[in-house]
Amino acid sequence: MGPDADVLMRRARESLERAYAPYSRFPVGAAVCDERGRLFTGVNVENVSFGLSMCAERAAIFAAIAAGARRISAIAVASGAAEVLSPCGACRQVIAEFASGDTPVYCCAGTSEMRRWTVSQLLPSGFVATQLRSP
């Protein structure tokens, strides 16, 4: 059993100050809970060559995977935006790789209230591993 949504979001918000976003000035922090209830955080890390930048959601998931996690049970994303945003398309695909369709994705901006989606709501008809298997 993992932490509740408020704990997960608090960890995402705490990580915001560690984001490296000198070009966009758009810090993002994320926290994920793995199948064992462990928490991992990540931040966006920008690069002057924009294509080499990394989103906070993927950074947190990759940290979890590097520590031995194989499934994500929840994810929270906090940004410095004026309104609640959801993960980008690349992050949605990575989340779908390690989470089930009903995994909650919590997002907030600043001190706004959280908004909750499921992975399936964010990525309907997503491309998943079972589609690679032969008929």
Q: Remind me, CATH topology?
A: Cytidine Deaminase, domain 2
Integer tally of domains: 1
Number of strands: 5
Series of secondary-structure elements, N-terminal to C-terminal: HEEHEHEEH
CATH superfamily: Cytidine Deaminase, domain 2
**Number of helical segments with 4 or more residues:** 4
Integer average pLDDT: 94
Poorly predicted regions are none
Strand content: 15-25%
CATH class: Alpha Beta
Largest sheet entry: 5 strands, mixed
Class of secondary structure makeup: alpha+beta
Q: Whole-Å distance between the termini? A: 36 Å
CATH architecture: 3-Layer(aba) Sandwich
Helix content: 25-40%
Query: Using only CA atoms, what is the Rg?
Result: 14 Å
User: Quick one: overall form?
Assistant: globular
Strand order of the largest sheet: 2-1-3-4-5
Secondary structure topology:
Elements lengths: L4 H11 L12 E7 L4 E5 L12 H11 L5 E8 L9 H10 L5 E6 L5 E4 H4 L13
Parallel strand pairs: 3-4
Antiparallel strand pairs: 1-2, 1-3, 4-5
Description:
By secondary structure, this protein is an alpha+beta fold. It has one domain (5-122): 3-Layer(aba) Sandwich (Cytidine Deaminase, domain 2), CATH 3.40.140.10. It contains 4 helices and 5 strands. Strands 2-1-3-4-5 form a 5-stranded mixed beta sheet. Strand 4 and strand 5 (115-118) form a beta hairpin.
Spell out the key features of this protein.
135 residues, alpha+beta, Cytidine Deaminase, domain 2, 5 strands
